[in-house]
Amino acid sequence: MSEKVLLIDDEAEFLENLSERMSVRGMDVNTAETPESAVTAMDENDYDAIVLDLQMPGMNGIEMLKLIKKTNPDMQVILLSGQATLEAGIQAMKLGAMDFMEKPADINALTERIKKAQAKKMVIVEKKAENKVKEILNTKGW
Amino acid sequence: MSTSASDNRASARFFGKVSASVSHEIKNVFAVINEAAGLIEDFTIMAEKGMPIEPKKLKRVANSIQGQVQRGDAIVKNINALAHSTDEDAKKVDLITVLELTLSLAMRMADMKQMKLEMGECESASTVIDQFGLIQVLYKAIAQTLELMAPSATLIMSITTDETDAIISYVVPDQDIALKLDDAVLDLAQQLNISIQNNTVNGSLDLRLKRVD
Lengths: 142, 213
Hints:
A: alpha/beta, 5-stranded parallel beta sheet, 5 helices, B: 57% helix
């Protein structure tokens, strides 16, 4: 099953080139240049992973990460930054980012992380389904 | 810390802040070029497997690389100009050139706050001054003004002249805010013989410098 990914970055050409490279690798990719369009995309779609630029006009990546995690705590978020400092990386991981990569990112490394994100999501979905079934069984006393 | 050491520290911090912003921009340029080059590689691999290359796509990617190289070149020119502004203690400088450079260096800072910087009408004027110091004052004035502005606002900088002075004016149209600078910037301006006044008529912050022909 192809991975469904949302790319969030204010650099339009970066989004265009990276999304095309990811599409060539079989991924289903949406892009968003602003926090507002990112929120709209997240409301309308269910993603396996979100790749998010750390520094964007209006709302930085950490704030965006907090917003994503608030509305969808299980969402797998990969942060991209031009300056991957240890401090920023630790802060991102504490807030629940799945990973933190420095730009320019290696496409193979990024693809690998997205595949892991999809696998992680499937485990979470299955676990939730399992818990739901158990809950029903307990409630109904079968 | 003594005043001189404190001034040096402030100057170093300013240069560090601008350098960090510039390096971040250049990283973004590399990121776009990296993906464009990777896409060309992907097209090549696809062609080797018998899939046709779309000339339009290839052209778009090539143009993207060329555009980013020009962008990167402009960024490097600006930081180079800032670096060389330290070459002499005082020299004759063209104020439009200095203001344009400062604006370019501050553009990313404004973009991050979703605010705009614009050059207004500028009369030709020159002064003899420590160019690095002047850029520092102008840049910090922009930074501190941005802090006072509401989102999406525009800061317009222009240059006018009278018989003796060149006046660099900062104005934020449609916003009734009192533009002001902190003591550190005011002190630096004073050391450079720049007089700073609030224009109560049009609400601008005016930086006055002695003109030379």
